[in-house]
Fold ADP-ribosylation factor-like protein 1.
Amino acid sequence: PYWRCYYSNTDAVIYVVDSCDRDRIGISKSELVAMLEEEELRKAILVVFANKQDMEQAMTPSEMANALGLPALKDRKWQIFKTSATKGTGLDEAMEW
């Protein structure tokens, strides 16, 4: 894929997921798994933005972590953060991590 041109010398991956889109969380998981299997990203930490947390129908970060298979990532440092891009909440905390 096109994204591979950005993989070399990457220390962290920031993955933004729509917390309200339950229909496409499986696609998000597939894309994430495929990306993390790339050799150049083997040592990169993973930061997941569980975005749209200001919406009532949003999945919780725990639900999202499970749906994305994050607990199975035993050899990778990762963290998921509640974010709202429109309100700016959670972004500073995530970037400081």
Summary: The chain is about 25% helix and 20% strand.
